[in-house]
Amino acid sequence: MARMKFLCDSDRCIECNACVTACKNENEVPWGINRRRVVTINDGKAGERSISMACMHCTDAPCAAVCPVSCFYTTADAIVLHDKDLCIGCGYCFYACPFGAPQYPKVGNFGGRGKMDKCTYCAGGPQQDNTAAEYAQYGANRIAEGKLPLCAEMCSTRSLMAGDGDIIASIYKERVQKRGYGSGAWGWRTAYRETVDV
Amino acid sequence: MSMLRSTLIALAAAAPLLGAPALAQAPAAEAPPAAAPAAEAPPAPAQPQAPAPAQPQTGAQPQAPADAGAAARTTTDPQVRQALPPASQTQQQLPQDDGAGPPQGSSEVQAPVPEVQSAGETGQRQVPNSADPEQPTGTPAAPQPQVAPTPVQPIPAPPPLGNRNLSAEELELQSALTGRRITGIVSIPDDKLAVLVQPEGRDWRAFRNSTMMWIGGVAILGVLAVLALFFLVRGRIRMRHGPSGRTMQRFNFLERSLHWLTASTFIVLALSGLNLVYGRHLLRPVIGPEAFTTVSELGKIAHNFLAFPFTLGVLGLLALWVRDNIPNKLDWVWLKNGGGFIGDAHPQAGRFNGGQKAVFWITVLGGGAVAASGFLLMFPFFVLNIEGQQIGHMLHSVLSMLMIAAMLAHIYIGSLGMEGAFSAMGSGKVDYNWAREHHSMWVDDELKRAHESVRPEPATRPAGAD
Amino acid sequence: MHDGNENKVAERRGFLKTLGLAGGAAAAAAAPAAAQAQAPRPRKETEVEKVAARYRETDHVKAFYRTNRY
User: Is there a contact between A143 and C69 if contact means CB atoms under 8 Å apart?
Assistant: First the structure.
């Protein structure tokens, strides 16, 4: 069974934010929320690195573990999704997520949080596939259409890859062999701490 | 030892370039003759087996005239590049030539190789101009593009901390090893998202799902068990001489209102809070996901709104009763006698005995801390960052659970546990016998005050006024 | 307000009653018709459907992999 993963090759990322824009547009992400973002480390200094980060779709998802209403589920493709109808906007998933993937629209009182929204790997949510209802709540379901997340498809330098974990790992390995570099597969050491194998 | 050797080799190799005639006369003597034939060699021979990148380490190409600038340009770190022994050159191959994979060092993609593989130099390979195994450290013909080195030996790690600029690889490794956050910059308005990775989330999850649940379970169930046991063994604490039928006022209307305001909000806050922790395991399987979400959502709203009246109540109780709750020696005696719960002692007490004072301070201090952390949680990231929010949550939850345990005991003793106690807060009036038995000093004070209000002290009466 | 008027009143009552009934019937008929004019509301996925695998290696996906190998 294919296990979906993201891999951002931070040697190639040029901080163009095409992935951010693509995601925002394709999924009509609400105002103030960025499912995907580009973080630049050491900006302006030697060894500057940019990485595109969204949800890492962890195997033992911390967000799912701490949710008080248990609104998360993992599909057979290892994509972590959640049910917005069950979400109460408590914010625990953001506390637990090492990557800051969950976001909340500011609709409530005080610093109140609305329903959590996060990267869905362009796989929609627990509404029927590719319906208006699913799009309104969760955005596009490209996986069901037989495509891949738009952020990776739109990456200008082919830095961000998405797809079957084995295949994109082998692609990355080919790049390393052919071009002789390695950035250490940013973020994977934290997400897949126990079994990092690039 | 090897550092010394590599230094010497480096110096020897660099000496002619730098024009230092004193050192290494022998290599310098070789250099010009070797340079001549090398200069005539055809450029870029397609010899996959030849040690083609013969001098990437020295960065010196045979054709160019002695050009210190070229040397300086191509050897940004002579220590590193020229530390490689000449013997290793024969093992190196150009990756583009036969695709036979990278040289040994760079296949370790997880190992950071700071100086050698930094951003600007990767992928810049140049086909060398000569296939000679021993490149003279002579004179490049023209400015040569940089040749990326192919490290083979492991390079000693730089000192872990210090003022030097850490490259991103080093940063990531350090953070991964020490469990710290990795932060950068983002171009979107939300600054929180500049944190790339926060490993503390793992620790918070473990605390919340494991430690905190255990603390709460043990505290609350433990207290309930102890109370049940106490009730079974001791039963309800009765008034020794039975009710007298005469009452006196213990708490006025304001005191009772504030108490019940605090108490009722506390109960709803406690239940909604416990629901967030245990509801997923206890309630959700019973009523189903949708109903449970509705209950939890209402609970969350109630929890947020009732925080304000609860805080007001606590502050009000603090203002009203702080003077009567200052600990004194009587309380120590009361405690030593087990508060009268154990054995037959009847220690004296003022308006509030030691146990009540403990409840007061738990409510004020614990409740104050819970309220403060709760407000910080309710206005997330106004003041604190993610780590602060997590710590605030841990504090809030643990203190609340301990408070719930304490209040369970308080509720027990004020209702079931002691005959005649509830009316103090219910109607405000207590039986005289009960008061005599449990708060004798307070009764004395009250009686003295009552007498003085009816009949002032003799001193105030003028002498001979009768 | 005598027989003549009573007849008129009865007529008006009858007229209004018919109006009311007709209106009610029209509204009652319109409501389900309007609902059916939109697409039938999709139900949420069942537990099994939620976790079903949806990724497949289509030509589109294969092209993505191919163009990423450079």
Answer: no
